[in-house]
């Protein structure tokens, strides 16, 4: 009995070692949790409508995905990484150093971040500066001097007399979330840079600038509501005066219950996010290892499916899932670049 | 009357109090058990209450005109045309026929949403098997979309109350009209047991996760049982009692208490980064879980070997058996039930383990059902974790249903362990 078990063990180990180095016949995707819901939909359709295996998709976050992606070329490394921002030059260099030379960059669409409230409350018209003043930990002294004080604002009216006299209450995602990162970078830092002397800090003291512009207040008005955007939507229904921060897809799906605030006069809508006039939006990318095309079956077909009109087009199924499609000209450019497998440079 | 109480009086005096204490002492025990049972009942009631509806699935009957022209099939002998044919188109035509009043673009898109986007593939399978159906009109039952599924399941029989979610009045009108026609039906949810993961709740199933768990456990068992038994035999039968074996014993006991996430980190560093094995495969998962299960198996195997009476060993030695013969012919067969029990309990632990598998990439979106130990896969507890995080409401009931399946497996394994012990274990 023991002898047979021993043989079985040895056989299993040997088989395992052999399989582990053999070729992989499915596409391996890693990266951003924001792109995950879109790439999984594409992968599922790709798997069902072709004879290739369905790609495997891990949600590791943009940074984690880049790290895995840039580890090297070969079947042990992922073929594609999703990103909710552009690749950084440091990451690009890391890729180059590890032999990942030819990378194809694919811009797939945009994701808007919405600051919204219940439809039973009045719709707010905010500016980025007002958002910064309402939510940053430290703000410029209201007396006009160039010093920072702990955020003194309690109501929206304190910031701008035309805003309602409500307590500032904003439900948002925790620091582990990509939505939070993007909100801090795009909304808070954007508002911060509309104050001239803080913007000047960027050149003199970069770290201080980043700290001032991206630190969220912790004295109550900003409430961390968990990663689940659904929960934020439910809480906004219960608390009519609160605002919430969530991805555009949730506004799209719950438009009967919540409305997005105007930012700088622009409502969060498909068109304004796509043309960039709504400021709190970010591009979504994925990056492809060119060396793996041809080695891993189905890579080119997967790229074609992702960049087909049926998927990332105006009326495509990705827009149904809440992704903001690119403009017509941009889409044509991306689809063409993918067809010719153009590698990027930095 | 003597002033000093006699012993019997003392006893009698305290007797009532002692009985009371005895009763209280027993009551504490009963209360603890009741508390445990209550928690269990609440847990089960919650899970079953939420999850039972996932075993049924709503279907809609559509009258579909399968014209070759609309499908785009010109030659029924060309299989590639069947792959590419416009199945969604004919299904959409059927919906438009049923609701001719819908003509705005956005409304039409909502209307098409009544049926699952997997319905097209369902139709493709049907036509590939029965190509003679082309250019006929057929009634087929197709999967309803998850929102309509939730609506139909939560609807009271007269339609007065239902979970409407993000439905508009028009959408409720459509589904009520279909219900009035009698073309909406709940059926046993076979998809749930036959399909892999999906982003559409109505097409999602646990087959992939179940097979992933199975392959992972096979690897774990094949590795950990022989290694564990060999280690236990050596430690019990051969090793001398000295500081070194004491040290090993302490370490085995320590290993049993190490948090499982540490094994995951170890697996990531050694198997994936150093040996560059692929991520997300049951082989690596099984090896990592082996590390975790080994101490359990070694400890229980040693106990089982220790329980074999020395007289049996001595008798065998006395009639001329070698040490190895004693172990293989007598000690191991007698200790086997105990060792198997330990192994099953270890396997049950491994089945419920999530943390170490997250680190080696077994938390991924995987649609294809794995067919071997080197295919990417997830396991049941990770699938539960993934679904509980999904925004779609219909995943709530599927999460609970998956928990029920996992609990079912655990109960079966633990019962098996108890039965084995009862039936096979010998007492001396």
Structure description:
The complex is a heterodimer of chains A (346) and B (428). With 346 residues, chain A is an alpha/beta fold. Chain A folds into two domains: 22-111 and 283-339, D-Maltodextrin-Binding Protein, domain 2, CATH 3.40.190.10; 112-281, Periplasmic binding protein-like II (D-Maltodextrin-Binding Protein, domain 2, 3-Layer(aba) Sandwich). Chain A has helices at residues 2-21, 36-49, 62-69, 89-97, 128-135, 156-159, 178-192, 196-204, 206-214, 229-238, 248-253, 270-275, 299-306, 309-312, 317-320, 328-339; strands at residues 28-31, 56-57, 80-83, 103-118, 125-126, 138-140, 148-150, 170-172, 222-224, 243-247, 258-260, 262-263, 281-289. In chain A, helix 5 packs across helix 7 and helix 8 (196-204) crosses helix 9. Chain A starts with a helix and ends in a 7-residue tail after the last helix. By secondary structure, chain B is mainly α. Chain B folds into two domains: 56-189, no CATH class; 207-424, MetI-like (MetI-like fold), CATH 1.10.3720. Chain B has helices spanning 7-51, 68-71, 79-84, 87-98, 105-112, 119-129, 146-154, 169-181, 191-194, 207-238, 243-256, 260-274, 282-306, 310-318, 323-351, 355-359, 380-388, 394-424; strands spanning 56-65, 137-143, 184-188. In chain B, strands 2-1-3 form a three-stranded antiparallel sheet. Chain B starts with 6 loop residues before the first helix and ends with a helix.
């Amino acid at each position: 009995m023991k002898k047979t078990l021993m043989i079985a063990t040895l056989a299993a180990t040997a088989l395992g070692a052999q399989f582990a180095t053999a070729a992989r016949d499915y596409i391996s995707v890693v990266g951003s949790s924001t792109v995950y819901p879109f790439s999984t939909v594409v992968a599922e359709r790709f798997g069902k409508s072709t004879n290739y295996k369905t790609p495997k998709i891990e949600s590791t976050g943009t940074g984690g995905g880049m790290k895995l992606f840039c580890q090297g070329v070969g079947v042990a490394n992922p073929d594609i990484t999703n990103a909710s921002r552009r690749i950084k030059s440091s990451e690009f260099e890391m890729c180059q150093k590890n032999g990942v030379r030819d990378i194809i960059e694919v811009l797939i669409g945009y994701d808007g971040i919405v600051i919204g409230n219940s439809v039973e409350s009045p719709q707010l018209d905010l500016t980025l500066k007002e958002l910064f003043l309402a939510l940053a930990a430290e703000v410029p002294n209201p007396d006009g001097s160039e010093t920072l004080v702990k955020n003194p604002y309690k109501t929206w009216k304190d910031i701008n007399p035309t805003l309602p006299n409500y307590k500032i209450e904003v439900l948002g995602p925790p620091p582990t979330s990509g939505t939070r990162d993007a909100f801090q970078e795009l909304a808070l830092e954007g508002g911060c840079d509309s104050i001239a002397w803080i913007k000047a800090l960027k050149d003199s003291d970069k770290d201080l600038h980043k700290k001032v512009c991206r630190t969220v207040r912790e004295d109550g008005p900003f409430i961390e509501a968990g990663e689940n955007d659904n929960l934020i939507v439910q809480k906004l229904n219960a608390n009519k005066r609160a605002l919430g921060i969530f991805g555009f897809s949730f506004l799209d799906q719950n438009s009967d219950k919540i409305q997005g605030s105007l930012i700088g006069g622009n409502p969060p809508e498909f068109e304004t996010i796509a043309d960039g006039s709504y400021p709190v939006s970010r591009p979504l990318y994925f990056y492809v290892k060119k060396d793996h095309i041809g080695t891993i079956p189905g890579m080119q077909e997967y790229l074609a499916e992702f960049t087909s009109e049926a998927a990332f087009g105006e009326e495509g199924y990705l827009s149904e899932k809440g992704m903001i499609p690119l403009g017509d000209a941009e889409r044509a450019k991306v689809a063409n670049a993918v067809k010719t497998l153009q590698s990027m440079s930095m | 009357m003597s002033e000093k109480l006699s012993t019997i009086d003392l006893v009698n005096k305290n007797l009532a109090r002692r009985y009371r204490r005895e009763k209280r002492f027993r009551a504490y025990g009963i209360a603890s058990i009741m508390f445990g049972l209550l928690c269990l009942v609440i847990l089960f009631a919650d899970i079953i209450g939420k999850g039972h509806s996932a075993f049924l699935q709503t279907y809609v009957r559509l009258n579909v005109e399968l014209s070759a022209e609309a499908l785009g099939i010109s030659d029924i002998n060309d299989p590639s045309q069947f792959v590419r044919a416009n199945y969604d188109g004919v299904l959409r035509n059927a919906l438009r026929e049923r609701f001719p009043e819908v003509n705005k673009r956005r409304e039409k898109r909502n209307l098409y949403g009544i049926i699952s986007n997997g319905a097209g593939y369902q139709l493709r399978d049907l036509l590939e098997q029965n190509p003679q159906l082309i250019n006929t009109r057929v009634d087929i039952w197709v999967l309803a979309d998850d929102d309509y599924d939730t609506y139909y399941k939560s609807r009271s029989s007269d339609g007065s109350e239902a979970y409407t979610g993000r439905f508009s009045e028009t959408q409720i009108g459509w589904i009520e009209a279909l219900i009035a026609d009698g073309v909406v039906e709940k059926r046993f949810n076979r998809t749930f047991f036959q399909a892999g993961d999906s982003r559409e709740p109505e097409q999602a199933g646990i087959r992939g996760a179940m097979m992933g768990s199975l392959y992972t456990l096979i690897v774990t068992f094949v590795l950990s049982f022989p290694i564990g038994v060999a280690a236990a035999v050596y430690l019990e039968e051969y090793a001398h009692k000295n500081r070194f074996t004491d040290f090993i014993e302490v370490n085995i006991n320590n290993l049993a208490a190490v948090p499982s996430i540490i094994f995951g980190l170890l697996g990531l560093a050694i198997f994936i980064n150093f040996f560059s094995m692929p991520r997300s495969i049951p082989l690596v998962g099984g090896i990592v879980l082996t590390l975790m299960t080994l101490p359990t198996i070694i400890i229980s195997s040693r106990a089982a070997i220790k329980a074999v009476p020395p007289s049996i060993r001595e008798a065998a030695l006395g009639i001329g058996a070698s040490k190895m013969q004693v172990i293989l012919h007598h000690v191991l067969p007698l200790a086997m039930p105990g060792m198997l029990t330990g192994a099953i309990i270890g396997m049950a632990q491994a089945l419920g383990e999530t943390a170490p598998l997250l680190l080696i990439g077994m938390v991924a979106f995987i649609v294809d059902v794995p067919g071997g130990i080197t295919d990417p896969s997830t396991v049941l507890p990770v699938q539960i974790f993934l679904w509980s995080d999904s925004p779609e409401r219909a995943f709530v009931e599927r999460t609970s249903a998956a928990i029920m399946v996992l609990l079912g497996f655990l109960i079966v394994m633990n019962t098996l362990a108890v039965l084995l012990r009862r039936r096979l274990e010998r007492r001396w």
